[in-house]
């Protein structure tokens, strides 16, 4: 099989504004290819797979003013997105549905289900 050649490079940048104690006060991110410039954010979870160590390297940050309610919603939406991504990447639809069921349970326990 022939090795592919990298034809283009793209960057995503995250700028973190810290206070004197290195606590994040503000976050902004940019993705030129996506047309996003200096967009505000309050939290991020970055996971990178290290193929040599077969381990995940991660950075979890959130701003000082992010509320507990916002964090609950952020986690819920992140878990749902992970289920979608896992299914797309692996085709494992049954376990992805199990994860979505857990997300419903999580939302119920955190009292963040939308009102009917």
Automatic annotation (TrEMBL):
Q: Which domain of life is it from?
A: Bacteria
One Pfam family here: GldC-like
The protein's name: Gliding motility protein GldC
Which organism encodes this protein? Fluviicola chungangensis
């Amino acid at each position: 099989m022939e090795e592919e050649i990298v034809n283009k490079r793209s960057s995503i940048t995250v700028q973190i504004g810290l206070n004197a104690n290195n606590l994040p006060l503000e976050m902004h991110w940019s993705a030129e290819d996506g047309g996003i410039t200096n967009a505000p954010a309050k939290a991020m979870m970055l996971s990178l797979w290290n193929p040599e160590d077969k381990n995940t390297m991660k950075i979890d940050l959130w701003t000082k003013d992010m509320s507990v309610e916002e964090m609950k919603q952020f986690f819920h939406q992140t878990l749902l997105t992970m289920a979608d991504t896992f299914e797309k990447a692996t085709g494992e639809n049954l376990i992805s549905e199990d994860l979505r069921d857990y997300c419903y349970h999580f939302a119920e326990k955190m009292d963040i289900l939308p009102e009917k």
